[in-house]
Amino acid sequence: MSVGLVVGIVLIAVVVVGGLAALFIWSMRIVQQGSVGVVKRLGEFRGVRQPGLHPLVPFVDRMAKVDMREFPMTGDQQQVITKDNVSLRVSATIFCQVIDVKAALFEIADFQLAVDQLSRTALRAVFGEMTLDQSLSERDTINTRMQDHMADAAMKWGVRLNRIEILDITPPTNVLQAMSEQKEAEQHKRAAILKSEGEQQSAINSAGGRKQAAILEAEGAKEAAILAAEAQMRVLELQAEGEKKARTLRGEGDAAALAAIDKVAVQPNTLAVMQLRALQEVATAPNAKVVVPYESAALVGGAQVLVDALKGAGGPAAPVTNGAAPPVAH
């Protein structure tokens, strides 16, 4: 065998092996995580391949990759008209996800474009049923209504609408100016109301304070009067108790003195002296009355007892007339 023939065979073998290797590599497909591969054989749907390495039949099979993750679709601002004929510019974001690969590829030509157009129609329909005030204040209601409008149609395309968010609502300039003036007027109104309520509350608090002060003052005066009366009553009680004790003590002293007198025999001389001294004190009193002893015989008898006592003592005796006592006059 000639050298040229060998070289030719080697070259042919190398070309064949290289072509087979290239063909094998070209027929292999890698599906990334989060996506699936849809295999079509000669244009016919053959199956869905999960993430990983998958071989295909060369020149016969084709694979289309579909992202199965949730993705947002943000459209540009749309011109809508509300129920009360106010023109608004609205933009929304739709979060959707492919759940049926076959329907997404074969039921609609471009499901993303279809969802975008459907969202525009839903925006106009929802805002056309609401007034300006509702459109500006009820975004959650708008999101729910839009999802209700789009859910059935999107589900036919194998697409699920997870949620819809309104990004921006822009009224016309004149409407914004009117809203600003209205807001300013409401703020002035609210400020006036708050001011009047504050003044009213202040007056109520002041009246309540004066009332409470008057009540406290009256209660203080009442308590002071009660305390004063109780103190006076206590003083009178103490005085009465003192007088009672004094009378008790005096009664006990008189009883004791009387008891002592009863126990001691009084001498006639002593009794006569006591009677004369009492008569002398009455006679020397500073008055213009003449005292005549009622019991003159007793006084004469006392004087006679005193004379007899002096005689017995050896002193001079004074004559005393029986039955007559000289009156003492001042």
Query: Looking at CATH, which topology of the largest domain would you report?
Result: Tetrahydropterin Synthase, Chain A
Which architecture of the largest domain per CATH?
2-Layer Sandwich
User: How many domains, as an integer?
Assistant: 4
N-to-C SSE string, H for helix and E for strand:
HEEEEEEEEHHHHEHHEHE
Main sheet properties: 4 strands, antiparallel
C-alpha Rg (nearest Å): 68 Å
Label the structural class. alpha+beta
Low-confidence stretches: 315-330
Mean pLDDT over the residues: 78
Strand elements, count: 11
Alpha-carbon distance between the two ends: 202 Å
Total helix count? 8
Give the C-level CATH assignment of the largest domain: Alpha Beta
Tell the overall outline: elongated
CATH homologous superfamily caption of the largest domain: Band 7 domain
Helix coverage percent: 55-70%
Strand content: 15-25%
